[in-house]
Design a protein that fits this description.
flat, 185 residues, cytoplasm, mainly beta, Elongation factor P, elongation factor, 54% strand
Length: 185
């Protein structure tokens, strides 16, 4: 058990038989009434984000999730196969469990599988990935208004807004949390 007073970003907790990670929290001490903790939690089973309020000093269960380094091997229909880097065991996850992550997954990429008591909750991607541009409009010389962008389709199918100087076959660094362009690789 852990007190809500000890919340910190990234902590995994168990509330109402669900596993959550703490995205944000705020200790509130109103002038009248008891203190409480307002938190923003992400459900690791379904990806939903909820806001929950706890009384100050309330205890919640601590969830010990395991992260294992695995390599993405291939996709077969609606299933994706990963291999453990140490034991060479393979696991398969459905596309529904990886909707956002599929925008960044490339074959042979090393990621982290998140599990809780042998239940696979999902995967953790690196903060940024290198992806190749497969389709974009050519940049027009002189068209350099401040902050001008165009759409580019990446090798995984993700569409990203990029600066006008980006061309096809360029390799870009893309943020995996919001899917935005960072820089050329």
């Amino acid at each position: 058990m852990i007190s809500v007073n000890d919340f910190r970003t990234g902590l995994t907790i168990e509330v109402d038989h669900d596993i959550f990670t703490v995205l944000d929290f705020q200790h509130v001490k109103p002038g009248k009434g008891a203190a409480f903790v307002r938190s923003k939690l992400k459900n690791l089973r379904n990806g939903n984000t909820v806001e929950k309020t706890f009384r100050a000093g309330e205890d919640v269960g601590r969830a010990h999730v395991e992260n294992r380094a695995m390599q993405y091997l291939y996709a077969s229909g609606q299933e994706h196969t990963f291999m453990d880097n140490e034991t060479y065991d393979q696991i398969t996850l459905p596309s529904e469990q990886l909707e956002w992550e599929l925008n960044f997954l490339k074959e042979n990429m090393t990621i982290s599988i998140v599990s809780y008591h042998n239940e696979i909750l999902g995967i953790n991607l690196p903060n940024s990935v290198e992806l190749k541009v497969i389709e974009t409009e050519p940049g027009i010389k002189g068209n350099t208004a401040t902050g001008a962008t165009k759409s580019a389709k990446m090798e995984t199918g993700l569409n990203v807004q990029v600066p006008l100087f980006i061309n096809e076959n360029d390799v870009l660094l893309i943020n995996t949390t919001d899917g935005k362009y960072i820089s050329r690789a």
